[in-house]
Amino acid sequence: MKKKNEKRRITALATALILLAVSITGCGAGNTKEAENQTGEVQETQAGQGTQMEEKDSVTVGIAWPSLGTQAWSAMADYLRWYVEEYNEKNDVQVKLVETTAGDDAAAQETQIRDLLNQDVDVVVSGAIDTTAIWSSITETHDAGKKFISFCRRLTPGGETADSTVGPDTYDTAYVSVDAAIKKMIADGIPAEEIQVIRVQGDLKDQNAMRYGEGCEAAVKDNGASIVADIESNWSVETVMNKLAPTLQANGKANLIFTPNEDLMLGVQSVLEGKDLWIKSGEKDHMYLAAAGGCEIGLELLQDGYLDATGYENLPEVSRKTVDNAVALALGEEPGDYFVESEAITQDNVQELLDENYFWVYDYVEKSK
Length: 369
Description:
Elements: H1 12-18, E1 41-46, E2 58-65, H2 71-88, E3 94-101, H3 106-118, E4 123-126, H4 134-143, E5 147-151, E6 164-168, H5 170-187, E7 196-201, H6 207-222, E8 226-232, H7 237-250, E9 256-258, H8 264-274, E10 288-293, H9 296-304, E11 309-312, H10 315-330, E12 338-340, E13 343-346, H11 350-355, H12 360-367
Parallel strand pairs: 2-3, 2-4, 4-5, 5-6, 6-12, 7-8, 7-9, 9-10, 10-11
Antiparallel strand pairs: 1-3, 11-13
Helix pairs in contact: 1-8, 2-10, 3-4, 5-6, 7-8
């Protein structure tokens, strides 16, 4: 049975207007919530694994969330907490979580990380709002003799480096999605040299956004297609809505649009509906679409027949591995980086995977009730 009918569908334009101010990486809409305690909430839990290189019976992890206002970030925060709770019953090393959220304000995040260090946390975990400005906070963390994990964000090269980076491989996410969409187009009889791609980008100061763009470009090149236009969206649905119409007008033969998350696809939908081009796959004049994330918006658009492919990111695995690496660092180990590979979800495999309860997003909706 399709999951999409579990709640009333709303129009793309209405949903897009709700999302205009949301700044994210990855997937996002639905179940929006911002942390009520902006100055940090302590949760005592337990974690620990491997050889204890340092004698510790507790580890304090300070988490500087960028924002918890999207489904993706709320889910990652909750899955991290739930995972720590599981360890509470299984391990000797206790973990305290001290959490803050900055409302996507880089200056506020810097202050909050300093406050976490003043609370003598062992490890700072941060989803950097500005992947260059965060260098100063990493330096402060190291100067305090503490460890730093970059959560879900690759940092800008050339500055102070994190002790570990954990997140989805956004290059891979974009690559598998665009590759699947182009291969579908070729199977539908469109020659590769006639495939013209409009690439929507996130914030070009964001290394994750850059990696999405690079993955898209590599898939296009490997398949013999071409990118004819770029739209820098700054993760704004409104920007996509404002820029896509003239871009389509200037590139009349464009036949594939890629967005680096599925929220931005709502802006695409609004524009295409206005041009009578919001057409299902297999029907005349269908505009091929590829995205990234694997959240509710993307899965519903796949089931409805409009989205051709998305790159699925296993966000609960990102949260679990972050806890593992934080404990390892606090115990004196060097766990290194960990990037979760993605896979293509298409109209051909989405229903089978739904039947297997494969997607974290529906598990999250149930657990959050």
